[in-house]
Backbone:
């Protein structure tokens, strides 16, 4: 004979009319830790763009304008804001407008990657104007004109998102930074166009060039090919070896003598005698006169009225091409790179 079901010690349900209740919840112990957050990196080496002669093709590439300024990392932390140069130097005090705007962004912790620029009357980023606003190489001036064009987000509200694909990082950045207006932090917008069309338009407007980025790429420090740069005109850093004197030129500088890197050595690549104004030439002359040496650091050939200097200054030079014997053609001086920017001297093969 089948036994009747055994009564449970406690009914699964109480009386039909009685409300169901869970057992009382215990108050959370404040000492109990929250879910772990990713530690905020003290510094991140930037992702750098490889130079290419033509834009890549395909839907996997996103395109932006190439900005001409100083690469910066903006750290927003509970303790405050830090603005770091590419070389890791703290320049927070030198960009007060950017720092003030960073404090107003709607985020508790973040690291933004971007470029500090100063715009000219036509809305183009102008490296020379940025340099002047900071007081030249080695200057200590603050720049209230500089704007941070933000193009990537590496850390966001307690999470390290460098391994997230670019498209997702950009989506978060677009919700954080305004795309236009007069603010000191602005979004470097992706432009819906194929690379060749965008490059042509950029060159027609006298911009420096464009940047191409793989949409599915994580953020990787170094020059690994996830980002590419395509320039309208060549612009690179060259070591200053000295100058030829001239009584008819600004600052008495007739022509700068320049060198590029070849392996572990420097090689002479010609001179540049244009691009100076009275102010930039005077500042450059003051810097060079502190470094005068009796003999050139590399063979420059026979030069009349030449003054040679230790190759410690890096000039940003815009140029059109190279001669058959490895000299710069149609070069123009744009400004001195600051040591904190860690600008590389151009390498010749």
Residues:
């Amino acid at each position: 004979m089948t036994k009747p079901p055994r009564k449970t010690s406690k009914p699964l349900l109480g009386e039909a009319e009685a409300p169901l209740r869970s057992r009382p919840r215990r108050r959370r112990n404040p000492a109990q830790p929250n879910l772990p957050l990713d530690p905020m990196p003290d510094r991140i080496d930037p992702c750098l763009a490889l130079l290419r002669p033509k834009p890549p093709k395909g839907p996997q590439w996103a395109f932006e304008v190439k900005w001409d300024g100083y690469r910066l990392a903006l750290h927003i932390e509970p303790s405050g804001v830090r603005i770091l140069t590419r070389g890791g130097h703290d320049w927070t005090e030198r960009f007060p407008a950017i720092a003030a705007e960073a404090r107003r962004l709607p985020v508790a912790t973040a690291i933004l990657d971007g470029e500090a620029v100063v715009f000219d009357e036509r809305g183009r980023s102008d490296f020379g104007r940025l340099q002047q606003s900071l007081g030249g190489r080695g200057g200590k001036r603050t720049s209230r004109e500089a704007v941070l064009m933000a193009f990537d987000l590496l850390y966001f509200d307690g999470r390290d998102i460098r391994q997230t694909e670019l498209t997702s990082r950009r989506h978060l950045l677009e919700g954080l930074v305004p795309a236009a207006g007069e603010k000191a932090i602005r979004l470097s917008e992706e432009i819906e166009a194929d690379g060749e069309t965008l490059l042509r338009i950029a060159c027609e407007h006298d911009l420096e060039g464009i940047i191409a980025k793989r949409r599915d790429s994580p953020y990787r420090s170094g020059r690994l090919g996830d980002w590419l740069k395509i320039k309208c005109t060549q612009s690179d850093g060259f070591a200053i070896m000295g100058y030829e004197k001239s009584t008819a030129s600004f600052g008495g500088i007739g022509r700068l003598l320049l060198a590029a890197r070849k392996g572990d050595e420097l090689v002479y690549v010609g001179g540049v005698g244009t691009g100076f104004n009275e102010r930039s030439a005077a500042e450059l002359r003051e810097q060079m006169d502190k470094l005068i040496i009796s003999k050139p650091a590399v063979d420059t050939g026979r030069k009349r009225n030449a003054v040679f200097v230790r190759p410690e200054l890096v000039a940003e030079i815009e140029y059109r091409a190279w001669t058959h014997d490895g000299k710069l053609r149609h070069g123009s001086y744009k400004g001195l790179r600051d040591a904190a920017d860690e600008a590389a001297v151009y390498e010749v093969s």
Observations:
- The chain has two domains: 56-231, 234-341.
- Residues 166-176 form the longest helix (11 residues).
- The CA atoms of residues 65 and 210 lie 5 Å apart.
- The chain has a mean pLDDT of 88.
